[in-house]
TrEMBL record:
Belongs to the cytidylyltransferase family. This is ethanolamine-phosphate cytidylyltransferase. Keywords: Lipid biosynthesis, Lipid metabolism, Nucleotidyltransferase, Phospholipid biosynthesis, Phospholipid metabolism, Transferase. Residues 1-22 are annotated as: Disordered. It comes from Penicillium salamii.
Length: 446
């Protein structure tokens, strides 16, 4: 099999979508993954995490809208939105937009990547051929485990069918194996796997060392739903990652983070930028301050420690109705956890961050509570009254993806329902063919 693609697939110097324009030396520590990355769900992040763990740099090829339409069907998110999602993943070193749908060696080699990493499923092009046939033939293909139970196709199906069986009743109950589907043994196995995945996602840029902290918050249902009852509640450690460093401001953000997308990412990036601007004014980036941190910790760190509170499924459903959230709390939590702009996650955070709740935080009372303009939830009161009274409320600035939220994304699906339903049917047909290819490969490998 000829691993060399047609010449038109190989850009010339100056034509590559991102620098460098000249070929990099090939390194075994530099990996390549590619895909559509339509929705920034945790399955995509899981693939990037596993790939990053195999080396020291990860290049992520992202297919164009046109290539995906030809080979798979219409995208939900634009290329710009999908690039933003990849760039925000803690384990991605560089995104490469307009990567070809069929993975060609000249693209991989140009960016100095020795191996291409992909899940243990088969991906085929519009002709039914394996998209990774060239890199497999060259012996430059590495397989990682596909994240079960989540895909773009799954999420689109939830929207079209308005299902609610993905909801999680209790975070602690699910993690203890007391709740969920299946036998007690199956629930326990599922709980063990889920906790392992949360720990995997709570890693630093290498994917191997401790990263964000993960906590759960326990309080009454009333305290979680609205502002009638204020409770300090109880924080418990789920994953003991890196805590705040000296001088860092504690910053709190909260939300549903449903269908985690460019809107959420741009908000978190804005918070980071605003805190960096504040830090600049207080001399955080002065050479002597930087040198002091480097001397004490052997690495520098950001001026803000950003904690993300994530609401339970029933809390979001109370306010949004229908079958929201489309992603359950663990799926949403993993999406937030993989984002490079956060340092800690608190599962089951109350909808209203009361003074009692904020003062009970294990990191100390936040220096700032940020929120963006809410356009999707029809609020009947202001959840941020206490942070405003405390003088710590900050509103994030407008950004390019201000309009992108769960409601907007579901609207896109419903507007083009017929096209997406056709995509779902095509996906099922392709799955049958891809399973046959996988079976043949397995038989040949025996």
């Amino acid at each position: 099999m000829d691993p060399t693609p047609p010449e038109e697939h190989v850009p010339q110097p100056g034509e590559w979508p991102v620098d460098p324009q000249e070929d990099l030396p090939i390194s075994e520590d530099r990996l390549w993954v590619d895909g559509c990355f339509d929705f920034s769900h945790h399955g995509h992040a899981g693939a990037m995490l596993q790939a990053r763990q195999l080396g020291k740099a990860l290049y992520v090829g992202i297919h164009s809208d046109e290539a995906i339409l030809e080979n798979k069907g219409p995208t939900v998110m634009s290329l710009e939105e999908r690039v933003a999602a990849v760039d925000a993943c803690r384990w991605a070193t560089q995104s490469v937009p307009h990567a070809p749908y069929v993975t060609y060696l000249p693209w991989v080699s140009h960016y100095g990547c020795k191996y291409v990493v992909h899940g243990d499923d088969i991906t085929s092009d519009s002709d039914g051929n394996d998209c990774y046939r060239f890199v497999k033939a060259a012996g430059r293909f590495r397989v990682v485990k596909r994240t079960p139970g989540i895909s773009t196709t799954d999420l689109v199906g939830r929207m079209l069918l308005c299902t609610r069986n993905h909801f999680v009743k209790s975070v602690k109950g699910t993690l203890s194996g007391q709740e969920g589907i299946g036998s007690p043994e199956e629930r326990q196995a599922s709980a063990t796997d889920l906790l392992r995945r949360i720990k995997d996602y709570a890693t630093d840029e290498s994917g191997l060392q401790p990263g964000p902290q993960v906590w759960t918050w326990s309080g009454s249902g009333t305290a979680k739903l609205d502002h009638v009852l204020e409770e300090a509640g109880k924080f418990e450690t789920l994953v003991d990652g890196k805590g705040p460093r000296p001088g860092q401001r504690i910053v709190y953000v909260d939300g549903g983070f449903d269908l985690f997308s460019s809107g959420h990412i741009a908000f978190l990036r804005k918070v980071t930028e605003l805190e960096e601007a504040e830090a600049r004014q207080r001399g955080w980036y002065d050479p002597e301050q930087t040198d002091k941190r480097l001397k004490e910790f052997q690495e520098d760190y950001s001026p803000a420690y950003i904690v993300a509170g994530i609401h339970d499924d029933d809390v979001i459903n109370h306010w949004k109705g229908l079958n929201y959230p489309i992603m359950n709390i663990f799926e949403r939590g993993l999406c937030v956890l993989q984002c490079r702009y956060i340092h800690a996650v608190a599962f089951s955070a109350p909808f209203t961050p009361s003074e009692a709740y904020l003062k009970a935080m294990p990191w100390g009372t936040p220096d700032a509570v940020y929120h963006g303009p809410t356009t999707f939830i029809p609020l009947t009161y202001d959840p941020y009254t206490d942070p405003k009274k405390m003088g710590i409320f900050r509103e994030a600035e407008q950004h390019a993806f201000q309009h992108v939220n769960a409601g907007e994304i579901v609207g896109r699906i419903l507007k083009s329902r017929e096209a997406y339903e056709a995509r779902q049917r095509a996906k099922l047909d392709k799955a049958v063919a891809e399973d046959l290819v996988k079976s043949k490969e397995a038989a040949q490998g025996q």
